[in-house]
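I have a small job for you when you get a moment. Can you supply me with one protein entry, sequence and fold together? It will help me judge whether the discrete encoding reads sensibly. Write everything out right here, beneath this request:
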Amino acid sequence: MTLVTKSSYVDGAFVPLVGNIDILENRNPSNPGEVVERFERASSEHTGRQIARLAAEGMKKAQLEIGGKNPLIVLDDADLEQAVEVALNGSFYSTGQRCTASSRVIVTEGIHDAFIARQAEHFKRNSSAGMVMVNLPTAGVDYHVPFGGNGASSLGSREQGTHARQFFTRVKTTYQLA
């Protein structure tokens, strides 16, 4: 919000609505008495569908980040140590499985190289990952199995049976020079 208030936005042009769908329905973009030009929202799929419906009824533009992961924007005046820490936590904390996880990092040109260098240094100091193998029969033999190996979770009396492994597994090969 600080960036918005310090920018050239006209007062009232950017009004964040925080809360559940009831708040949004009370500020219904299909209400002709309200001047709402555009609707932007990061939300769950359920809320996003309702917002899209309300916006469509009023012929308003809507940009929705549904259940999404948000971009992290790092500007020239950022504290680089803190920005790198925030970027790494945003991408990898909770294995990236959060609605606020950063799936993209946008860095301004003025600090791009320094940001990348500090991020690379962080990985060099703090990463200790190597080959991860789960299944003993393939350990040290077949490095083309999916990350973590093939588990027995897709076998047995499940609805899809043995076809589940082929359907739900995307094999990716990663090589790392030691």
